[in-house]
Records
---
Amino acid sequence: MDINAVSSGIAAMQGLVGISRTLLEVRDITKLAGIQFELNQRILDVQAAMFDLQAKFQAKSDAFEALKAHATQLESAARDRERYTLHEIRAGAFVYRRREDVQPTEPIHYLCQPCFDKGVKAILEAQDSGVYGELQICPVCDRKIAMST
Ligand SMILES: [Zn+2]
């Protein structure tokens, strides 16, 4: 919370209280007109401070909601990442594969290791290349991995 906005709101409210006390003490009609003008100014000050405070509160609230959504997204990505482990698909060629101990809820598939390390979940697509046999191709970075040497 912005302490300056709160302080100016409190100061404006204190001004209103002071004017109210003066109003109770004054019986002169000409003095009352001047006090009424000052009272209206203080009311405007309080309204301006409240609008300022409300705008700052809304901005902080929006930022908080955005951070909360981002944290939820990161937690979900971390949970998903824990389901996979690095796997050597053939000598020197690595992919990520679902861990053996994870309840199988989807078919066996491989993830591109460089993309997954960058936080991008890219499921490799199998393709028969003819010469090299089956290839696993990353749809994001176009990395090609031959399943056999
Ligand atoms: Zn990739």
---
Amino acid sequence: MNPPFRKIIHIDMDAFYASVEQHDHPELRGKPLAVGGSQRRGVVAAASYEARNYGVRSAMPGARAAEKCPHLIFVKPRFDRYKEISNQIRQIFYDYTDLVEPLSLDEAFLDVTENKKGLPSATLIAEEIRRRIHQETGLTASAGISINKFLAKVASDINKPNGQKLIAPDEVILFLEELKIEKFFGVGAVTARKMKSLGIFNGRDLKEKDLLFLTRNFGKSGLHYHRIVRGEQNSPVRPNRVRKSIGAERTFSESVFGRDIDGELNRIFEIWVNRIAQNSARGKTVTLKYRYDDFETHTRSSTAPNYISTREELGEQVDQILESTAIERPVRLLGLTLSQLEPKASGREGTQLTLEF
Ligand SMILES: [Mg+2]
């Protein structure tokens, strides 16, 4: 039986690239910072909140940004690091649902109507996910919760940064009526200007226009606008990638060494084993990742002859790796991953796989 409403969460990391840089380089914290853009023709890929206070925005030419904020610090992007964290947060999402649709490295939709934890409240799930993202990566995220992707996406912006917003089913209609036209997801600056020239300033104005009027003025998008303003956007959350590994890793705000490494590794192991069990996954290759203070990163792998999944089998592989690995200095990141996963024969993932190939 389908419940009357879907429960959709949109998670969005706060000033993602800039926050990663400030997290990894404590000397940059509290300072106006732009990732990218230092080249003559470069543009800002992301700005820290301190830089935004000066009017620096992403997609702004670096020269313009430097004008607005003369002491702006430009940092080169490190996409490998952003991808790593992106993967880390996705592993958290998968603890709740397989219906995860990433929009970019730092944003995703989750359909938690039926979730793996059997939790009835999407609000609590969003809180839990944000708390865990912070624990495991040291970064903050914002969330929007509502009945469809459009509303969840709009909502996640409202209490940003480090906040969340629910638009409950009975609030949807009023919320949409009062929403400024430029806040509608999919309405860019040009469309917003056109809408205003037609007397459409908010959802209420938009709703008063009939479908014919909207399609005449906006083509195919007219139907989209006609629907979203009535809360009728119901495109499903599409898990658009096949999962290749199941991992658990943790970035520490203060590096750990010696016995503390064993303790942290045990905790990560527990989370990891549970994840693998919860997903009924089996795989062959176990990888330990550790990163020293100076970002030097090592991975050590061990591959089993057959698919493995139990705590004992996984533990055995980890022990084997540890026996031949010397972690010599304090580390700031530890992680365990199971890859070379057994292809799933049935279920949603399997269906997707058949369609894609
Ligand atoms: Mg973001």
